[in-house]
Write the structure tokens for this entry.
Amino acid sequence: MSERRAADARAWVVLAYPVAMLGVFFLGPFLIMLAASFYRRIPGGFYEPAFVLDNWKQLLSELFVDRALFSLRVSLLAGWLAVLVAFPFTYALTTMPRRRQVALLVLVLSSLSLSEVIVGFSWSVLLGRAAGISNILVWLGLMDEAEAYAPGFWAVMLGLLSIAFPYCVLTMYPPLSRLDREVTEAAQMLGASPWRTFWTVVVPIARPTIVAGFLLVFVFTLGSYLISAILGRPEHWTVSVFISDQASFNANVPFAAAMALFLTIVSLAIVGAVLWFERRAAAREG
Amino acid sequence: MGGNRYSRREFIKRGGALAGALALPGVLAACGRTPEQAGTGASPTGAAIDTGNIAGTKIKVGTYGGFFEENFRKMYPAFTEETGVEVESVSQPTSETWVVQLEQAAKAGAVPADVSMLSIVGMLRAIKGDILATYDPSNLQNREFLADGFVRTNDAGQVVGVGAVSWYITLVSNTDRVPESPDSWSTLWDPRWRNELALLRNPGNSFLLEITAATHFGGYDVLQTQEGVEEVLAKLAEVKPNVKLWYRDEATAQQAFNTGEVSLGQFYHDITTYAASQGEPLRSVFPTEGAILDSGEWAITKTTQNLAGCVAFIDYMCRPEIQAELARTLGTSPTVKREFMDLTDEEYEAFSGPGPDAALRPEYRIYDEWEDWINQRWSELIVGVE
């Protein structure tokens, strides 16, 4: 018993630092933001400490509701598309010889060194009319005149996916590489095709992994603002774009704080709901 | 890739934030003071500032990062030689963003810059937020050279802002894509430019409301009521299908104009002229309705420790020969009266076209009074929520 208590104490010592850091650098700013969301805005100026609900009421505006729904749609779609591409990729990766796995993983990892700004502007050039990929099609004689593919919805999606993809792969790689090969071999020995094995054996077993990858991309893209600002038209701008506009151009920190908090609450609620369903499904399967 | 080189009023926000963040420890080290001490340098009112012992001191001066800052920086050594005040040049982002950073830094007791160049809209916010130092006009010996309206005073008659330079926003086009430039703002509504235009993203720096009012409503009368502004916004909404790029940062727009990613739009006359002189396929045309004429003002941050050095700097920058030099190198419009400068008619026309009298002035009042309402309606307009 006392041994266990000592172990607990040691665990607390180890945990104390990260917990303190989380408190200082996450909870602290979060509480400041919560307070700021009730401050009174001074149009044409800044804001003053107060307790008013105006900023939260503004969330009911048609513009904000429209943008919030759009952002959620974009992130949900990005989450599924990322999983759709990353899961087969990662699974195939784990079945490769070790050396090739490492080489590909390094390649995926290295793309993390590119910031959102660089990814955004690179896509805007590649999808542009002046120096974009359509020029190659013109050169090959497949097109008459170079076209611009950005700004547009799919340009935004492409940008988001190219940022989210490596994270998704990195989340899925460890569990998938630990997947027991004997299970899939058994399925194939019983006559299942590799395709059928993948769908009826691998996917169900890896469902928690898929959910984790999806949630990561969902939360990640919900907070992204540069990609949609660079690659989208105004109708593709996410809530994050408006948060940054309010905070840094209009000096309306109270409204920006209310929008950001709302976004945080909604994303936590969605993550919670997905995890709850996932746990319930797992319990049912027993 | 000269995009960033040309950027001035705005550059990628992260860069701006970074510059601000980097500047914070710098200013503390430079002035050798701690945040707690800051704030004691605020203005004595109604008094002559003693500039007798400013030699050996230091100030940080912010101007729009890129081409602007590069050229202003060249003006500072002569000032240092004359006064002994060392000037550290700071790249600042667009005024709207910079004012927010200044306000936050002032709360923390630090100052990223002692003197900043602020657009009028930024200036009005800074005054409302009470983050600027004030001083008696008599401390500016060169104020007599300035054209009317370039010494901004508060209710107590104290100076808060002094005209630094003015700039024109004109109709800019890529010469490869547009063989002959239109000469009226009304072209923005022409369906032949579908998906070809670049316009500024914010109401308070694009002044598209003024442009629309002057082009389609015969003047600014319509902007005097919110109902009128709604009418103007509805008219402005018609340009939406033509706009390919709503730009926040100048560098992005510069790149898009240079490469022909966009054909036509509103942009700054000064850097367009400069880029064209460097061989870029660009031209700037003063529209018949008038180009937008906006100004930057020198403002001193309240928490500065060296008010005397800052005032001496601002006074120096008001000299006619400095203003003429800036006009020649930057292509900006001087804030000094024309008769005091040795600019030829040709030089004068190169940077100001038909001159300030023919220009459209921003209706600053509406941004001051109806800011949040205009921003909200504007966003609804360009997003298309109706």
